[in-house]
C-alpha cells in the first residue's frame, strides 16, 4: 500500500475531491499538521480513521515510524491544514524518504493556492516560478530577493499577513516598482486580488491586512542586446576627442550595455 499525499481545501470546504475522500476513508493512518483542525474536516465528511500529528516540529522524527508502517503494507495518507502537503507544508520529508526506500508513493491533484493566484494576477501565467515563503530575517530575505532580481519568469511568493508590509518594502527596494498582484483568501468568502505596482500594493497594506496572502510578481523583462550601431558612432566621436580606448570602452559599456572587450577590439581595428 502506498504513502499518499492528499490536498485538502484552502478555503471552501467543498473544494475537496471525491477521490481524496475515498483515499482518506481507506487509509490505515492519516498524518496531519493539527489533529484538531483536520478532525473538523474529516468529521464533516464522515472519515473516521486514526490520526497522527505530523508537522514541521516533528516531521523528521516521524520518518522512521512511518517508513516502518509503510514497509508492513499499511496505507498512510498525509494531509496539511490546507492545500497540497509537501510544497510549503510538511510532507516532502517523508515523501523523499519513501521514494529513496523504494516504497510506493502517490500524490493526488487538488486544492493549492499558487495556481489560482497566478491566473488571478493577470500577469503572464507561464512560465512561472514558485518560490513560496522567503526567510523571516531581513538580511536573508534581501539576499534571496537579490538572487531573483534578474529572474525573467513570473514569480509566486507566500506572505505572512502580520509581516506583509515589511516584506513588501524589501520587494520594492530590491526588485524595483514592477507590476504585481496580492491575492488574498483564495477560495474563501473574502477573496480579493489587488493588482498594481509594488508601491501601490505596499500602500494598500499600510494599515494592516488579514488572511492568507499570495504575492505574484512580474519577472524582469529581457532587454534586447544593443546593436553595434548604437555605440559605434559615439565611440568614434570620443576617440576623435583623444580619449583612451580603455576609458571609452568602460564608459560605453556602462551607457549601452555592450561588452567592453568588443568595444576595445573594434576601436583598435579602426586605428589599424
Q: Outline of this structure?
A:
Helix content is 42%, strand content 17%. The chain is of the alpha/beta class and 272 residues long. The termini are far apart.
Care to describe what's here?
The protein has 272 residues and is an alpha/beta fold. Helix content is 42%, strand content 17%. The chain is built from eleven helices and ten strands. The chain has helices at residues 18-25, 35-44, 59-71, 92-100, 114-121, 138-148, 164-175, 198-204, 228-240, 245-256, 260-271, and strands spanning 3-5, 29-32, 51-53, 76-79, 105-107, 128-133, 154-159, 179-184, 192-197, 213-217. The longest helix is centred in the N-terminal third of the chain and has 13 residues, at 59-71. 29% of the residues are buried. The mean pLDDT is 92.
Provide the spatial order of strands within the biggest beta sheet.
Answer: 3-2-4-1-5
Question: Terminal Cα separation, in Å?
Answer: 77 Å
β-strand percent reads 15-25%
Could you estimate the helical fraction of the residues in percent? Answer: 40-55%
- The tally of helices reads 11
What are the secondary-structure elements, in order, as H or E?
EHEHEHEHEHEHEHEEHEHHH
Fold topology:
Blueprint: E1 3-5, H1 18-25, E2 29-32, H2 35-44, E3 51-53, H3 59-71, E4 76-79, H4 92-100, E5 105-107, H5 114-121, E6 128-133, H6 138-148, E7 154-159, H7 164-175, E8 179-184, E9 192-197, H8 198-204, E10 213-217, H9 228-240, H10 245-256, H11 260-271
Parallel strand pairs: 1-4, 1-5, 2-3, 2-4, 6-7
Antiparallel strand pairs: 7-10, 8-9, 8-10
Amino acid at each position: 500500500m502506498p504513502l499518499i499525499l492528499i490536498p485538502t481545501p484552502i478555503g471552501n470546504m467543498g473544494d475537496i475531491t471525491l477521490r481524496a475522500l475515498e483515499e482518506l476513508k481507506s487509509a490505515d493512518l492519516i498524518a496531519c499538521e493539527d489533529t484538531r483542525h483536520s478532525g473538523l474536516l474529516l468529521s464533516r465528511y464522515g472519515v473516521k480513521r486514526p490520526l497522527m500529528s505530523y508537522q514541521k516540529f516533528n516531521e523528521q522524527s516521524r520518518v522512521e515510524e512511518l517508513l516502518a508502517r509503510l514497509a508492513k503494507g499499511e496505507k498512510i495518507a498525509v494531509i496539511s491544514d490546507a492545500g497540497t502537503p509537501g510544497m510549503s507544508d510538511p510532507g516532502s520529508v517523508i515523501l523523499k524518504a519513501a521514494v529513496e526506500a523504494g516504497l510506493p508513493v502517490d500524490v493526488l491533484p487538488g486544492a493549492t493556492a499558487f495556481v489560482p493566484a497566478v491566473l488571478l494576477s493577470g500577469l503572464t501565467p507561464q512560465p512561472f516560478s514558485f518560490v513560496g515563503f522567503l526567510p523571516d530575517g531581513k538580511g536573508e530575505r534581501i539576499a534571496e530577493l537579490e538572487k531573483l532580481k534578474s529572474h525573467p519568469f513570473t514569480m509566486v511568493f507566500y506572505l505572512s499577513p502580520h509581516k506583509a508590509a515589511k516584506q513588501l518594502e524589501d520587494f520594492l527596494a530590491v526588485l524595483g516598482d514592477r507590476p504585481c498582484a496580492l491575492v488574498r483568501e483564495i477560495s474563501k468568502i473574502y477573496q480579493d486580488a489587488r493588482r498594481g505596482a509594488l508601491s501601490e500594493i505596499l500602500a494598500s497594506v499600510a494599515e494592516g491586512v488579514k488572511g492568507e496572502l499570495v504575492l505574484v510578481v512580474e519577472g524582469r523583462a529581457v532587454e534586447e542586446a544593443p546593436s553595434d550601431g548604437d555605440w559605434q558612432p559615439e565611440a568614434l566621436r570620443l576617440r576623435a576627442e583623444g580619449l583612451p580606448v580603455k576609458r571609452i570602452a568602460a564608459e560605453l559599456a556602462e551607457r549601452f550595455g555592450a561588452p567592453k572587450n568588443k568595444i576595445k577590439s573594434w576601436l583598435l581595428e579602426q586605428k589599424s
